[in-house]
Amino acid sequence: MGGNQTQIKLILLGITDSPRAQTPLFVLFLLTYIVSLVGNVGIITLVRVSPSLHTPMYFFLTQFAFMDICYSTAISPRMLADLLSEDKTISFTACMMQFFTFAFFGISECHLLAMMAYDWHVAICQPLLYVTIISSRVCWQLVASSYLFAFLSAIIYTWSVFGGSFCGPNHIDHFFCDVSPVLKLVCSDTHSSEMVIFAFLTINAVGASVVILLSYISILRTVLRMCSAHSRARAFHTCASHLMAVSMYFGPAFFMYLQPPSSHRSLDKVASIFYAMVTPMLNPFIYSLRNKEVKGALLKSGRMLFRHWQHARLVSSRT
Prior knowledge:
Blueprint: E1 9-12, H1 19-49, H2 56-73, H3 76-84, E2 89-91, H4 92-125, H5 130-133, H6 136-162, E3 171-172, H7 179-183, H8 191-224, H9 229-257, H10 267-289, H11 292-318
Parallel strand pairs: 1-3
Antiparallel strand pairs: 1-2
Helix pairs in contact: 1-2, 1-3, 1-10, 2-4, 2-10, 4-6, 4-8, 4-9, 6-8, 8-9, 9-10
Protein backbone atom coordinates (compact mmCIF):
# COMPACT_ATOMS: atom_id res chain seq x y z
CA MET A 1 0.00 0.00 0.00
CA GLY A 2 1.85 3.06 -1.23
CA GLY A 3 2.20 6.26 0.73
CA ASN A 4 0.38 8.28 -1.95
CA GLN A 5 -2.60 5.94 -1.66
CA THR A 6 -3.20 6.95 1.95
CA GLN A 7 -3.72 10.55 0.73
CA ILE A 8 -6.80 9.57 -1.29
CA LYS A 9 -10.05 11.23 -0.25
CA LEU A 10 -13.17 9.08 -0.52
CA ILE A 11 -16.78 10.25 -0.45
CA LEU A 12 -19.55 8.32 1.32
CA LEU A 13 -22.83 8.79 -0.53
CA GLY A 14 -24.77 7.83 2.61
CA ILE A 15 -28.21 6.30 3.10
CA THR A 16 -30.15 8.72 0.93
CA ASP A 17 -29.52 11.74 -1.26
CA SER A 18 -32.89 13.30 -0.40
CA PRO A 19 -32.37 16.45 1.75
CA ARG A 20 -35.89 16.17 3.20
CA ALA A 21 -35.29 12.64 4.46
CA GLN A 22 -31.95 13.32 6.13
CA THR A 23 -33.18 15.16 9.25
CA PRO A 24 -35.90 12.59 10.14
CA LEU A 25 -33.39 9.79 9.56
CA PHE A 26 -30.86 11.57 11.77
CA VAL A 27 -33.39 11.79 14.64
CA LEU A 28 -34.44 8.15 14.18
CA PHE A 29 -30.91 6.75 14.07
CA LEU A 30 -29.70 9.00 16.88
CA LEU A 31 -32.44 7.63 19.13
CA THR A 32 -31.60 4.09 18.00
CA TYR A 33 -27.92 4.60 18.82
CA ILE A 34 -28.66 6.16 22.23
CA VAL A 35 -31.02 3.32 23.17
CA SER A 36 -28.38 0.83 22.02
CA LEU A 37 -25.68 2.46 24.16
CA VAL A 38 -27.91 2.78 27.23
CA GLY A 39 -29.20 -0.78 26.92
CA ASN A 40 -25.82 -2.43 26.44
CA VAL A 41 -24.04 -0.33 29.07
CA GLY A 42 -26.96 -1.11 31.38
CA ILE A 43 -26.51 -4.86 30.82
CA ILE A 44 -22.78 -4.63 31.58
CA THR A 45 -23.36 -2.52 34.71
CA LEU A 46 -26.19 -4.73 35.99
CA VAL A 47 -24.08 -7.89 35.67
CA ARG A 48 -21.14 -6.21 37.41
CA VAL A 49 -23.18 -5.00 40.43
CA SER A 50 -25.39 -8.11 40.83
CA PRO A 51 -23.61 -11.05 42.55
CA SER A 52 -26.40 -13.40 41.39
CA LEU A 53 -25.35 -12.76 37.78
CA HIS A 54 -21.67 -13.57 38.28
CA THR A 55 -21.87 -16.74 36.19
CA PRO A 56 -20.25 -17.77 32.88
CA MET A 57 -23.49 -17.16 30.97
CA TYR A 58 -23.64 -13.51 32.04
CA PHE A 59 -19.90 -13.09 31.61
CA PHE A 60 -20.41 -13.97 27.94
CA LEU A 61 -23.41 -11.64 27.85
CA THR A 62 -21.33 -8.68 29.05
CA GLN A 63 -18.76 -9.41 26.34
CA PHE A 64 -21.59 -9.61 23.81
CA ALA A 65 -22.91 -6.22 24.94
CA PHE A 66 -19.41 -4.72 24.78
CA MET A 67 -18.96 -5.96 21.19
CA ASP A 68 -22.37 -4.54 20.24
CA ILE A 69 -21.32 -1.14 21.59
CA CYS A 70 -18.00 -1.19 19.74
CA TYR A 71 -19.09 -2.28 16.29
CA SER A 72 -22.14 -0.03 16.37
CA THR A 73 -19.93 2.90 17.41
CA ALA A 74 -17.57 2.15 14.53
CA ILE A 75 -20.37 3.16 12.14
CA SER A 76 -23.14 5.18 13.81
CA PRO A 77 -21.38 8.46 14.82
CA ARG A 78 -19.88 8.91 11.35
CA MET A 79 -23.20 8.09 9.67
CA LEU A 80 -25.09 10.54 11.92
CA ALA A 81 -22.56 13.30 11.19
CA ASP A 82 -22.85 12.70 7.44
CA LEU A 83 -26.65 13.01 7.57
CA LEU A 84 -26.27 16.63 8.73
CA SER A 85 -23.18 17.53 6.71
CA GLU A 86 -22.69 18.37 3.07
CA ASP A 87 -19.05 17.33 3.25
CA LYS A 88 -19.07 13.51 3.35
CA THR A 89 -15.41 12.98 2.52
CA ILE A 90 -13.42 10.43 4.48
CA SER A 91 -9.69 9.84 4.25
CA PHE A 92 -8.35 6.55 2.94
CA THR A 93 -6.81 5.76 6.34
CA ALA A 94 -10.01 6.59 8.26
CA CYS A 95 -12.04 4.45 5.85
CA MET A 96 -9.63 1.55 6.30
CA MET A 97 -9.68 1.86 10.11
CA GLN A 98 -13.48 2.02 10.15
CA PHE A 99 -13.66 -1.18 8.13
CA PHE A 100 -11.05 -2.92 10.30
CA THR A 101 -12.82 -1.98 13.54
CA PHE A 102 -16.21 -3.08 12.26
CA ALA A 103 -14.81 -6.36 10.91
CA PHE A 104 -12.90 -7.07 14.13
CA PHE A 105 -15.85 -6.69 16.49
CA GLY A 106 -18.31 -8.23 14.03
CA ILE A 107 -16.20 -11.40 13.71
CA SER A 108 -15.62 -11.47 17.49
CA GLU A 109 -19.38 -11.43 18.02
CA CYS A 110 -19.82 -14.23 15.50
CA HIS A 111 -17.48 -16.47 17.51
CA LEU A 112 -18.95 -15.36 20.82
CA LEU A 113 -22.42 -16.47 19.73
CA ALA A 114 -20.95 -19.93 19.04
CA MET A 115 -19.35 -19.95 22.51
CA MET A 116 -22.65 -18.97 24.12
CA ALA A 117 -24.34 -21.87 22.32
CA TYR A 118 -21.65 -24.22 23.64
CA ASP A 119 -22.19 -22.78 27.12
CA TRP A 120 -25.93 -23.58 26.88
CA HIS A 121 -25.05 -27.07 25.61
CA VAL A 122 -22.86 -27.83 28.64
CA ALA A 123 -25.37 -26.28 31.08
CA ILE A 124 -28.28 -28.37 29.79
CA CYS A 125 -26.58 -31.56 28.61
CA GLN A 126 -23.85 -31.88 31.26
CA PRO A 127 -25.10 -29.89 34.28
CA LEU A 128 -23.06 -31.86 36.84
CA LEU A 129 -19.81 -31.06 35.01
CA TYR A 130 -20.71 -27.48 34.13
CA VAL A 131 -18.60 -25.79 36.84
CA THR A 132 -15.59 -27.91 35.86
CA ILE A 133 -15.89 -27.49 32.09
CA ILE A 134 -16.94 -23.81 31.97
CA SER A 135 -14.62 -22.38 34.62
CA SER A 136 -13.69 -18.71 34.89
CA ARG A 137 -10.34 -19.44 33.30
CA VAL A 138 -11.95 -21.26 30.38
CA CYS A 139 -14.34 -18.33 29.85
CA TRP A 140 -11.46 -15.88 29.53
CA GLN A 141 -9.56 -18.27 27.24
CA LEU A 142 -12.57 -18.64 24.94
CA VAL A 143 -13.15 -14.88 24.73
CA ALA A 144 -9.43 -14.20 24.20
CA SER A 145 -9.30 -16.77 21.39
CA SER A 146 -12.29 -15.14 19.70
CA TYR A 147 -10.57 -11.74 19.84
CA LEU A 148 -7.31 -13.19 18.53
CA PHE A 149 -8.92 -15.01 15.60
CA ALA A 150 -11.06 -11.96 14.81
CA PHE A 151 -7.97 -9.73 14.84
CA LEU A 152 -6.11 -11.96 12.38
CA SER A 153 -9.17 -12.30 10.15
CA ALA A 154 -9.83 -8.54 10.21
CA ILE A 155 -6.24 -7.85 9.11
CA ILE A 156 -6.65 -10.24 6.17
CA TYR A 157 -10.03 -8.73 5.22
CA THR A 158 -8.68 -5.19 5.43
CA TRP A 159 -5.62 -5.94 3.33
CA SER A 160 -7.75 -7.79 0.75
CA VAL A 161 -10.15 -4.83 0.44
CA PHE A 162 -7.70 -1.91 0.64
CA GLY A 163 -4.53 -3.50 -0.73
CA GLY A 164 -5.44 -2.91 -4.38
CA SER A 165 -4.85 0.15 -6.54
CA PHE A 166 -7.31 3.04 -6.13
CA CYS A 167 -7.01 5.27 -9.17
CA GLY A 168 -10.54 5.82 -10.45
CA PRO A 169 -13.86 6.95 -8.89
CA ASN A 170 -13.84 7.86 -5.21
CA HIS A 171 -17.59 7.71 -4.42
CA ILE A 172 -18.60 4.89 -2.04
CA ASP A 173 -22.26 4.04 -2.54
CA HIS A 174 -22.87 3.25 1.14
CA PHE A 175 -22.98 4.96 4.52
CA PHE A 176 -19.79 3.27 5.75
CA CYS A 177 -16.72 1.59 4.28
CA ASP A 178 -17.96 -1.92 3.58
CA VAL A 179 -16.47 -4.69 1.43
CA SER A 180 -18.47 -4.54 -1.79
CA PRO A 181 -18.77 -0.73 -2.18
CA VAL A 182 -15.04 -0.22 -1.60
CA LEU A 183 -13.96 -3.05 -3.92
CA LYS A 184 -15.94 -1.38 -6.73
CA LEU A 185 -13.45 1.50 -6.59
CA VAL A 186 -10.37 -0.71 -7.03
CA CYS A 187 -8.76 -0.38 -10.48
CA SER A 188 -6.75 -3.62 -10.31
CA ASP A 189 -8.22 -7.12 -10.58
CA THR A 190 -10.17 -7.96 -7.41
CA HIS A 191 -10.96 -11.62 -8.14
CA SER A 192 -8.25 -13.02 -5.83
CA SER A 193 -9.22 -10.57 -3.06
CA GLU A 194 -12.87 -11.57 -3.37
CA MET A 195 -11.96 -15.26 -3.15
CA VAL A 196 -9.85 -14.70 -0.01
CA ILE A 197 -12.60 -12.64 1.63
CA PHE A 198 -15.27 -15.18 0.72
CA ALA A 199 -13.14 -18.08 2.01
CA PHE A 200 -12.45 -16.45 5.38
CA LEU A 201 -16.05 -15.27 5.75
CA THR A 202 -17.18 -18.82 5.09
CA ILE A 203 -14.75 -20.19 7.67
CA ASN A 204 -15.92 -17.68 10.28
CA ALA A 205 -19.66 -17.59 9.65
CA VAL A 206 -20.24 -21.20 8.61
CA GLY A 207 -17.82 -22.52 11.25
CA ALA A 208 -19.66 -20.64 14.02
CA SER A 209 -23.01 -21.73 12.57
CA VAL A 210 -21.95 -25.39 12.65
CA VAL A 211 -20.95 -25.09 16.34
CA ILE A 212 -24.31 -23.46 17.12
CA LEU A 213 -26.25 -26.05 15.11
CA LEU A 214 -24.49 -29.03 16.72
CA SER A 215 -24.92 -27.50 20.18
CA TYR A 216 -28.66 -27.06 19.69
CA ILE A 217 -29.10 -30.53 18.18
CA SER A 218 -27.54 -31.94 21.35
CA ILE A 219 -29.68 -29.62 23.51
CA LEU A 220 -32.84 -30.68 21.68
CA ARG A 221 -32.09 -34.36 22.14
CA THR A 222 -31.44 -33.83 25.87
CA VAL A 223 -34.56 -31.71 26.36
CA LEU A 224 -36.82 -34.20 24.59
CA ARG A 225 -35.59 -36.93 26.97
CA MET A 226 -36.62 -34.89 30.02
CA CYS A 227 -39.55 -36.42 31.89
CA SER A 228 -41.01 -33.18 33.20
CA ALA A 229 -42.92 -30.91 30.81
CA HIS A 230 -42.01 -27.97 33.06
CA SER A 231 -38.28 -28.77 32.70
CA ARG A 232 -38.61 -28.98 28.93
CA ALA A 233 -40.46 -25.65 28.75
CA ARG A 234 -37.89 -23.99 31.01
CA ALA A 235 -34.98 -25.28 28.90
CA PHE A 236 -36.57 -24.07 25.65
CA HIS A 237 -37.38 -20.68 27.20
CA THR A 238 -33.79 -20.36 28.41
CA CYS A 239 -32.40 -20.88 24.90
CA ALA A 240 -34.96 -18.69 23.12
CA SER A 241 -33.09 -15.41 23.71
CA HIS A 242 -29.86 -16.76 22.28
CA LEU A 243 -31.64 -18.21 19.25
CA MET A 244 -33.27 -14.85 18.53
CA ALA A 245 -29.88 -13.09 18.76
CA VAL A 246 -28.33 -15.69 16.45
CA SER A 247 -31.11 -15.25 13.88
CA MET A 248 -30.83 -11.45 13.91
CA TYR A 249 -27.06 -11.59 13.53
CA PHE A 250 -26.55 -14.35 10.97
CA GLY A 251 -29.60 -13.61 8.80
CA PRO A 252 -28.46 -10.18 7.53
CA ALA A 253 -24.79 -11.24 7.62
CA PHE A 254 -25.39 -14.20 5.29
CA PHE A 255 -27.50 -11.98 3.03
CA MET A 256 -24.77 -9.35 2.86
CA TYR A 257 -21.53 -11.28 2.65
CA LEU A 258 -22.17 -14.81 1.40
CA GLN A 259 -23.27 -13.76 -2.07
CA PRO A 260 -21.28 -12.84 -5.19
CA PRO A 261 -20.33 -9.13 -5.45
CA SER A 262 -22.38 -8.82 -8.66
CA SER A 263 -25.52 -9.74 -6.69
CA HIS A 264 -25.30 -6.77 -4.31
CA ARG A 265 -28.13 -4.29 -4.65
CA SER A 266 -29.92 -1.43 -2.89
CA LEU A 267 -31.30 -3.73 -0.17
CA ASP A 268 -27.73 -4.02 1.14
CA LYS A 269 -28.10 -0.66 2.89
CA VAL A 270 -31.28 -1.85 4.64
CA ALA A 271 -29.56 -5.06 5.78
CA SER A 272 -26.53 -3.05 6.95
CA ILE A 273 -28.74 -0.72 9.01
CA PHE A 274 -30.38 -3.74 10.60
CA TYR A 275 -27.22 -5.52 11.76
CA ALA A 276 -25.17 -2.38 12.49
CA MET A 277 -27.80 -0.39 14.41
CA VAL A 278 -31.08 -2.22 15.01
CA THR A 279 -29.67 -5.54 16.25
CA PRO A 280 -27.35 -3.94 18.88
CA MET A 281 -30.36 -1.95 20.11
CA LEU A 282 -32.64 -5.00 20.37
CA ASN A 283 -30.19 -7.44 21.97
CA PRO A 284 -30.36 -5.94 25.51
CA PHE A 285 -34.17 -6.13 25.43
CA ILE A 286 -34.11 -9.72 24.18
CA TYR A 287 -31.77 -10.83 26.97
CA SER A 288 -33.44 -8.81 29.73
CA LEU A 289 -37.17 -8.95 29.06
CA ARG A 290 -37.12 -12.71 28.45
CA ASN A 291 -34.83 -13.54 31.37
CA LYS A 292 -36.20 -13.86 34.91
CA GLU A 293 -32.76 -13.63 36.51
CA VAL A 294 -31.96 -10.36 34.74
CA LYS A 295 -35.38 -8.91 35.54
CA GLY A 296 -34.99 -10.01 39.17
CA ALA A 297 -31.54 -8.43 39.44
CA LEU A 298 -32.85 -5.26 37.79
CA LEU A 299 -35.74 -4.98 40.26
CA LYS A 300 -33.43 -5.67 43.19
CA SER A 301 -30.97 -3.01 42.02
CA GLY A 302 -33.86 -0.59 41.50
CA ARG A 303 -35.12 -1.16 45.04
CA MET A 304 -31.61 -0.65 46.45
CA LEU A 305 -31.20 2.61 44.54
CA PHE A 306 -34.60 3.76 45.74
CA ARG A 307 -33.69 3.00 49.38
CA HIS A 308 -30.37 4.85 48.99
CA TRP A 309 -32.22 7.80 47.48
CA GLN A 310 -34.74 7.81 50.35
CA HIS A 311 -31.94 7.59 52.92
CA ALA A 312 -30.01 10.45 51.27
CA ARG A 313 -33.17 12.54 51.12
CA LEU A 314 -33.89 11.87 54.82
CA VAL A 315 -30.32 12.80 55.82
CA SER A 316 -30.44 16.02 53.79
CA SER A 317 -33.81 17.02 55.30
CA ARG A 318 -32.42 16.61 58.84
CA THR A 319 -29.42 18.75 58.09
